[in-house]
TrEMBL record:
Residues 257-303 form the PAS domain. Residues 328-382 form the PAC domain. Keywords: Coiled coil, Kinase, Membrane, Phosphoprotein, Transferase, Transmembrane, Transmembrane helix, Two-component regulatory system. It comes from Candidatus Dojkabacteria bacterium. Residues 386-607 form the Histidine kinase domain. It is an enzyme of class 2 (transferase). GO terms for molecular function: phosphorelay sensor kinase activity. This is histidine kinase. Residues 206-264 form a coiled coil. It catalyses: ATP + protein L-histidine = ADP + protein N-phospho-L-histidine. Its EC number is 2.7.13.3.
Length: 617
């Protein structure tokens, strides 16, 4: 910073030069004027004081001090307009004093010349002009007073005129300069204002831009967040999609399984129907149409009565009671009628499908048309029947002749001959037993001649006699059959004596046959309200658990007896069951392998219908 700049800043009390702010220039002029004027006037004051012009010196020192104070105000307040009128007043007063007195050493005129410069320096053109005119009017007034002779002036009149003219010219010049300066200042101001406005606008734009930038940044970060969210959602969706795909695949597999299942059901040879709870058919496979002869469209929505209804009301009551009330599986045989009126026999299996709460959802009915199989069976049975009949006659012939020979009717036999004929007789007996069994089976199956003829029998007496008979015949095995002492002496029951005899005999024979020698077979008759129970207990080889269900099947013989190679046909228990059930009774057993078996037969004491009954398997 150069010294001039330093002084400039010192005078205006600023730290930095701002050339654009021209108010500083006015402040500078105003302060310079106040300072210089105060210094000069104080100087004059001191000089006049030394020369003994006390009054003049006093006025000058007071004016000088006031001007210096005004300088200080201007310097520190940095307001050039401050106390402007005081400054102007002091200047006017000083000038008037200089004019009137002629100034120190007759320099009054010179002082007056300084007036316009000083005034315009410290004020604006307008205030300067106004103040100058006011000053000139005062001067004119004094001049007028001088002409009138009231006032003594230290100048010649000519001098005053010249003075007025020259001062007016100086004033005019200074005024013009001032006006020009002010115009240029105001132009500069306007420019500066415009610049400021432009700057403001620019600033505003900048802030706006910044705001926009900020908003953009915010939007960007929001977008980023949203993007992230979208990405997360996308990942979640992809996962979901994967799950959905898996599920889809699963359900497709299930659907394929279901389809296979459906195809299997659809193409099954057995007739299958699904019905609702009321028995209305919801689904029927193709076999239903084949067996019944009805079109599928005629079947759906109907009940199986469409081809059924051929059995007794009791049968259907029992059927519905089993599947709907007891919610169990019904198994049985029944007769139905095809669309063409033809009757057919069906093996039926019907069961309910339950929901979680145990309520019936729907029923499934499976039927198998066994008409043909039955016919074949019947043919077989008839064949067996015919064959057995045919066989029985010669076998009976052999039996008689063997008996005659053994009785010695054909002459005395040697020991060897007797032995062989006895063997022959026993083999023939076994064959006859088999033929009888076969005949019974064929009778049961054809239902033709296996009639149960009820009559009143003392069952205790019957069993007692039978046990005695069996014990009389020498058993190869040395097994004793014992009847447990009954609680009552007599028990009259309505049964087919011969057939029940056959039942009990069969059970005792089995007990003896499947027991070790020297063991006992216990037979007991028990009275049980409207039933009576006959039990046959042995300590023999027992029945294997896994085969116990098949024991009453035709020709079935358990593995353990097959190994022991004991004689037998597997027909005895089949016939037993048929006879017992023909009596509306029940047969069952309890057995432990290698420990023994007990067979139970429970029969009603009284025959219900009093009519004879034909047994049919
Ligand atoms: P089988 O002529 O073979 O005795 P059954 O019909 O009388 O024919 O009996 C069928 C099967 O039941 C027998 O082969 C045997 O396996 C079994 N069985 C019957 N009774 C007994 C019993 N008391 N002890 C052990 N097994 C028996």
């Amino acid at each position: 910073m150069n010294p001039i700049e330093y002084i400039y800043l010192l005078l205006i009390g600023q730290r930095k030069i701002n050339y654009e702010d021209h108010s500083n220039v006015r402040l500078l002029f105003s302060n310079i004027y106040s300072l210089i004027a105060s210094v000069i006037i104080l100087g004059y004051g001191v000089a006049n004081l030394l020369e003994g012009f006390i009054l003049t010196a006093f006025l000058e020192i007071v004016s000088g001090v006031i001007l210096f104070i005004l300088f200080l105000f201007g310097r520190f307040s940095r307001e050039f307009d401050m106390f402007i009128w005081i400054k102007i007043g002091v200047v006017i007063a000083l000038m008037l004093y200089a004019f009137l007195t002629g100034g120190s050493q007759g320099t009054g005129f010179l002082w007056i010349y300084a007036f316009p410069v000083a005034i315009f320096a410290i004020s604006s053109s307008f205030i300067g002009l106004f103040s100058t005119l006011f000053f000139f009017s005062l001067l004119g007034l004094f001049y007028f007073f001088n002409i009138l002779g009231f006032l003594q002036l230290p100048y010649e009149r000519e001098e005053i005129k010249t003075f007025f003219l020259s001062v007016s010219v100086v004033t005019l010049i200074v005024y013009i300069y001032k006006v020009l300066q002010e115009n240029s200042f105001s132009a500069l101001d306007a420019q500066r204002k415009q610049l400021e406005i432009a700057k403001l606008n620019f600033d505003a734009e900048l802030t706006q831009k910044k705001d926009t930038e900020k908003e953009l940044e915010e939007s960007l970060s929001k977008l980023k967040e949203q993007n992230e969210l979208l990405n997360n959602t996308k990942t979640a969706m992809l996962n979901l999609l994967e799950d959905v795909n898996k599920e889809k695949q699963k359900s497709q597999e299930q659907a394929a399984d279901l389809k296979k299942f459906e195809e299997t059901v659809e193409n099954a040879s057995d007739h299958i129907v699904f019905t609702d709870v009321e028995g209305k058919i919801l689904y029927a496979n193709s076999a239903v149409s084949k067996t019944t002869g009805y079109d599928r469209k005629d079947i759906i929505g109907k009940t199986p009565r469409l081809w059924g209804g051929q059995m007794s009301p009791d049968f259907y009551k029992e059927f519905w009671n089993t599947i709907k009330v007891k919610k169990q599986t019904y198994k049985g045989e029944l007769t139905n009628r095809r669309k063409n009126g033809e009757l057919y026999t069906a093996e039926v299996q019907a069961f309910p499908v339950l929901d979680e709460s145990g309520q019936v959802k729907f029923f499934v009915g499976i039927e198998r048309d066994i008409t043909k199989a039955k016919e074949v069976d019947k043919l077989k049975s008839e064949f067996v029947s015919v064959a057995s009949h045919q066989l029985r006659t010669p076998a009976t012939g052999v039996k008689w002749y063997a008996e005659l020979i053994l009785e010695g009717k054909a002459g005395k036999l040697t020991k060897k001959q007797k032995e062989y004929i006895t063997e022959m007789y026993q083999s023939n007996e076994r064959m006859l037993a088999l033929i009888n069994d076969l005949l019974n089976v064929s009778r049961i199956e054809t239902g033709s001649k296996f009639e149960i003829q009820f009559s009143s029998v003392d069952i205790i007496d019957l069993v007692k006699n039978m046990v005695q008979e069996i014990n009389k015949l020498a058993s190869e095995k040395d097994v004793k059959v014992i009847m447990v002492k009954p609680q009552i002496k007599k028990l009259l029951v309505e049964i087919d004596k011969e057939k029940i005899f056959q039942v009990i005999k069969n059970l005792i024979d089995n007990g003896v046959k499947y027991s070790p020698s020297k063991s006992k077979v216990m037979v007991e008759v028990q009275d049980n309200q409207d039933q009576f129970i006959i039990s046959v207990k042995d300590t023999g080889i027992g029945i294997p658990k896994d085969q116990s269900e098949r024991i009453f099947e035709k020709f079935f013989r358990a593995d353990n007896v097959l190994k022991a190679e004991t004689d037998g046909t597997g027909l005895g228990l089949y016939i037993v069951k048929a006879i017992v059930e023909g009596h509306y009774g029940k047969v069952w057993f309890e057995s432990n392998e290698d420990k023994g078996t007990t067979f139970f037969v429970s029969l009603p004491k009284k025959h219900i219908s009093k009519e004879n009954r034909v047994i049919q398997a």
